[in-house]
Known about the structure:
- By secondary structure, the chain is α/β, with parallel strands linked by helices.
- The protein has a single domain (2-295), classed as pyruvate-formate lyase- activating enzyme (Alpha-Beta Horseshoe), CATH 3.80.30.10.
- It has helices at 88-91, 93-101, 121-124, 141-147, 153-165, 184-191, 209-220, 225-232, 238-254, 282-295, and strands at 2-7, 12-14, 22-24, 27-28, 55-60, 74-77, 107-112, 130-135, 169-177, 197-202, 258-259, 274-277.
- It has a nine-stranded mixed sheet, with helices on both faces. A three-stranded mixed sheet has the order 1-5-4, with no helix packed on it.
- The longest helix has 17 residues, at 238-254.
- The radius of gyration is 19 Å and the shape is globular.
- It starts with a strand and ends with a helix.
Amino acid sequence: MNIKETETRSILTKSNLPVGDYSVNPYxxxxxxxxxxxxxxxxxxxxxxxxxxxxxxxxHWPEIKNPSRYRGKELFVGSVTDPYNPQEERYGRTRALLxxxxxxxxxxxxxxxxxxxxxxxxxLKTFPDARVGFSINTLDESFREDMDKxxxxxxxxxxxxxxxxxxxxxxxxISPIFPGITDVPAIIQRAMDRCNLIWLENLNLRGSYRxxxxxxxxxxxxxxxxxxxxxxxxxxxxxxxxxxAELRTLAQRLGLPYVRDDDSMNAPFDAPPTVVNxxxxxxxxxxxxxxxxxxx
Length: 296
């Protein structure tokens, strides 16, 4: 693992993403090494010869001046890295960020696959408008181990529950949904009592990881190969349209709002979680790419 510390002029980047006004990434790279990570395109801006997941640049930035000028703005922490990768325990760059923003009045959205976020529960409680999202796309630990090096699904659910019980808004980010593998209804029912938002994102195959995932399906799940070829080679949307209809029916049965746009931050804390279907979201990928170019 190649880990180095770097200096950057600013940690806040103006965002075009629909999930925040600014994106914040305390690291470059991510040691969770998810095989499906769209942020792997960042590698070409880093001068790292190592494969994605085998390097990490630890960012140091000047103290954020007058952080209250960002009052009311939403900061999305972790658009192209996991802010709670294992190295955060040593370097504490995400905690440093929270310390600098404390009392600023920003809206904070954090995305992670780690229960290390529980370390910062004391700080998170000082942000009235904060939420923490946990990426969960399977209940099968063997599949999870094939796909990433993050903590177990059980630990993610436990962290989600602990934060939610402490009055911090949480999100179950069901992403990416693997056709024929991800049991979305089961994850929704498992998460619904411990989160305020359930975000659905379909698997998009592009770039360097397209071959990786297709080879995995060919080797480990050959029964699904025709479906993946239909979706990712033939361009069919039938699977997603069918899943959309099934999940809409499920949400209605469970009494959960099923929408296309997220307004859950304004909902009462104890309201049923909002389910947001964000299939066909290529604009997010394009925006993230533009942001990465500004970071580089």
